[in-house]
Design a protein that fits this description.
With 199 residues, the protein is of the alpha+beta class. Helix content is 42%, strand content 32%. The chain has eight helices and eight strands. Strands 6-5-4-7-1-2-3-8 form an eight-stranded mixed β-sheet. Helix 1 runs parallel beside helix 3, helix 2 crosses helix 3 and helix 7 runs antiparallel to helix 8. The longest helix has 14 residues. The N and C termini lie far apart (50 Å).
């Protein structure tokens, strides 16, 4: 079994080829700066994004509830480890301490990560898995990839704040013209705000 390598969330990209799914991009800390992505569902993507953006909700989401239960049971989430990959599916474990007792719980990787970021717990991956799935990519290539992914088959209905960040100015202007022409003024305002941020 390989050693544990610490990783963190590098970004999230909407998956154009499979409706309702997102690619969560994870990045090695230090080392070769390798990245890999896991496919997650819309609910998990929303849960992760809301926490990363420190959004305040009137009622707790499922992962907020789970985190509260862990605290109320006087347990502490120590770390999350992506320890195995079977048939291209990542398997994760959540490591807890309840008093002096260690507890290890099998979990979906997306759920484990959503809990980890709520507890400020580190996320690790087995080095042997990272050797298999990790790719070295420079920042310029990554920006180009995000922009290409964001612009592919794009419609006004698809637009979110996350996607707008990765769309070129030229395409943003085209989308703004389209939104105004279709009298979609709320969307047009969001696009205009993004253009203003760049100029």
């Amino acid at each position: 079994m390989g050693k544990e390598i610490r990783i963190h969330i590098a970004g999230m990209i909407y998956n154009q080829s499979l409706t309702g799914t997102y690619s969560l991009v994870l990045k090695e800390e230090g080392g070769l700066n390798r990245r890999f992505s896991i496919m997650i569902g819309e609910a998990e993507a929303q849960s992760i994004a809301l926490k990363l953006n420190n959004a305040k909700l009137p009622r707790p989401l499922s992962h907020d509830l789970m985190n509260s239960i862990i605290r109320e049971l006087n347990a502490k989430l120590i770390k999350v480890v992506i320890h195995e990959m079977v048939n291209d599916i990542f398997h994760a474990e959540i490591y807890l301490m309840q008093g002096e007792t260690p507890v290890v719980i099998d979990a979906r990787t997306s759920d484990a990560i959503a809990l980890a970021i709520r507890s400020d717990a580190p996320i690790f991956i087995n080095s042997e898995i990272l050797e298999t799935v990790g790719i070295v990519i420079n920042e310029e290539e990554l920006r180009a990839h995000k922009q290409e992914s964001a612009e592919q088959n794009l419609t006004l209905e698809d637009l979110t704040g996350e996607k707008l960040r990765y769309i070129s100015l030229g395409t943003l202007q085209e989308l703004l013209d389209q939104a105004v022409e279709e009298e979609r003024y709320e969307i047009a305002a969001k696009i205009r705000d993004e253009i203003d941020l760049r100029e």
